[in-house]
Each structure stands twice: as C-alpha cells, then as structure tokens.
Design a protein that fits this description.
Layout lengths: L13 E3 L26 H4 L2 H28 L12 H18 L4 H15 L14 H9 L8 H25 L6 H7 L9 H10 L2 E3 L4 H19 L6 H4 L4 H15 L8 H19 L6 E3 H4 L4 H7 L6 E3 H12 L4
Parallel strand pairs: 1-2
Antiparallel strand pairs: 3-4
Helix pairs in contact: 2-3, 2-5, 2-9, 3-6, 3-11, 9-11, 12-15
C-alpha cells in the first residue's frame, strides 16, 4: 500500500462537497495529497503496524461510505416523475451493497481494539457521538422513500425489488456488526440519553464533529474528483483485503472484494451520465409535495390526514408521517418528519 497515505496504512483527508451545495461545476486545482514516504520497513513504523491497520480500516472505511452515500444521494435525487426522469436503480443497488461491505470492512478489527482505542476517542470527541451525524447519509431515507413510494409502473418491479433488498443489506450489516462490537451494550447516543442528554435531533455542529473525527473537509469538488477519490480509497482497501486476514471468512456477510469492486466499476462506467441530481432541489420538491398532499387530502380541513384520506397510493408515505401510529397524520407530525429529513438544526 504505497500509493495512499504518507506511510503504510496511513489515512488521508477526504475532500467532499457540502451536501446542500452540490458538486462544483469546474475541475479546479487538484486537492493536495501527501507524499508517500519510503520507510515502511523501518523498525519505528513497523512496531505499531497492526494498530495503524485497524485505525486505517476505521477511518478510510468510513470515508469511503461517505463517498458512496454522497454519490447515491446525487443519483436518487435525479428522480422527478413529473419530467419522467428516473435514477439508475441497478447502479444504486450496487452502491447500497458496497456500503454494506464497506461498513463491515470499517469494523474489521478486534473488539478489544474498538473498545480501547475507537469508542473512547469518539466519546471524548462528544459523549453522544453517533453515526447518524454522517451528513452524506442524512437525506437518503427521504430520497429512498421518494423512489419506493413512486406510482406503480414508474420503475421496473424487478429492479425496484433488488433496490429494496440491497438497501436492507446495509441495515442488517449495521445491526450485526454493532452487536458484535458492543455485545449487550448501546450506542454512545443511547448512553448519553440515559444520562438526560438528548442529542437525537442533530445540530449542525454535530455533523461538523463527525466530519472532524473522520478527517473530512467540505469544499468545492466535482463529481469526477469525487469518483477519483473513491477509486483511490477502494484501491487501498482492496490491497488490504487481498492480503487475506484469517478472520475475514467468518466476518463478512458476502465477498467484500467482489461487491466493492463491482460497485466501483459501475460507478466509473456511469460517471458521465449518472450523479446529475441536485439534492437540495429534490428535497425541496418533496417538501412541497408533502404540503400539497396535506392540502389535497385534508378534505375536512382539520389540519390532519387520516389513513382513509391518504388512500392506498400514499399508504407508505402516510406510515412515515403517522409517528404515533394512531391512524391520523397531523400537520405537526408531518412538519416534524420533514424537519428531521430536511433541515440543518442550528
């Protein structure tokens, strides 16, 4: 691993756009990268190689997930049923599967290392440190719901099924790995809530804390530069995986090399035609749609929609709005859902 980082298993700063500003329009100055040192075999550097390898997996693995999530959000946000513009669900499904394998890779480290070196560091950064503070993931639930709640016939049924299954892989991987790393325990976010500190709805500075921890710098970056950055990290990850760690066969749910490289190839092949969506515009369009549906379906003008008023077409969307499950989605519940999905809290 001599083309990434300043030394073997060294991390690099990730340059990535602000999610709400989108990609830069012009490829400007290349982002600075460190010069690779040629002293990997020195006693000083080799002494702590294993710990550096685990920290590399944790940081570079998470950076790669951010890149994949960002590209996925850009692709899904292109969806506009009114203009008959649809995202590439096959590409999106491959990205979802890759994020599941990358997440497993980022946690491909001994439990004792995680509990001694990773979790305490996160806790010192913030007592409620949470993966939910990953800015590039924050709109994916909303964007996915736009696709899955689309009128029948907009997407091929088979492609939509694979998309949903691939998305669920990420959730299953997260649950499995979390139970393995903290058996019987809870997240730092949950632990902080038990002390009376509620950080469930993130503030803007929580997203910045997350970025700082994982060495992320938000700046103007083109889609091509983002793909190149992902490609470079995947190269380094695959070099690590191909070294054949003995624990790998029992750790990963699928062959990570195959799944990650398959997504990488598809992303590079699609870079000229994909990732054209504007995330901010897509989210704002969904917000307008929600308010319009409230106006249309609130037939008795009581400021709420019943399950019957929503009808079968909007049943899934209604479930997201009806937070308390009482069969009535109030204006307050809809506003809270949209607030959670779309707004930086300051």
């Amino acid at each position: 691993m001599t083309s990434f980082g300043e030394y073997q298993f060294g991390n690099e700063v990730l340059f990535i756009p602000d999610l709400e500003k989108g990609f830069g329009q012009h490829r400007g100055m290349e982002q600075p990268r460190p010069t690779v040192a040629q002293h990997e075999k020195s006693q000083e550097c080799a002494a702590d190689l294993e710990r550096r390898k685990y920290w590399f997996r944790w940081v570079t693995g998470h950076q790669s997930m951010l890149l994949l999530w960002h590209l996925l959000a850009a692709e899904l946000s292109a969806f506009n049923s009114d203009d008959q513009i649809t995202p590439d669900l096959e590409l999106s499904a491959k990205i979802f599967r890759a994020t599941a394998s990358i997440y497993e890779y980022s946690c491909f480290l001994p439990v004792e290392f995680y509990n001694r070196d990773v979790r305490p560091f996160m806790s010192l950064s913030h007592m409620g440190f949470s993966g939910s503070w990953a800015a590039d993931y924050r709109y994916l639930s909303l964007l996915c719901s736009m696709v899955m709640n689309a009128p029948r016939g907009v997407f091929d049924a088979g492609s939509l099924k694979i998309f949903k299954e691939s998305r669920s892989m990420g959730h299953k991987s997260h649950v499995t790995v979390a139970n393995r790393m903290v058996p019987g325990g809870g997240s730092l976010l949950k632990k902080s809530a038990e002390t009376g500190c509620d950080f469930v709805r993130p503030l803007r500075h929580h997203y910045l804390i997350f970025d700082s921890f994982f060495q992320v710098h938000r700046t103007s970056v083109t889609a091509d530069q983002l793909v190149d950055s992902l490609d470079m990290r995947i190269d380094a990850i695959l070099v690590d995986l191909n070294q054949g760690d003995a624990r790998g066969e029992d750790f990963f749910s699928v062959d990570p090399v195959r799944v990650i490289d398959e997504a990488r190839v598809s992303i590079k092949q699609s870079r000229g035609s994909a990732f054209k969506g504007n995330i901010r515009e897509a989210v704002e369009r969904e917000v307008r749609s929600a308010h319009e549906l409230l106006r249309l379906f609130d037939t008795n003008r009581d400021g709420a929609i019943t399950r019957a008023e929503a009808g079968d077409i909007y049943a899934k969307r209604f479930q997201q709005w009806d937070k308390d499950g009482d069969g009535i989605a109030t204006r307050e519940e809809i506003e809270e859902f949209l607030l959670d999905m779309t707004t930086w809290q300051s």
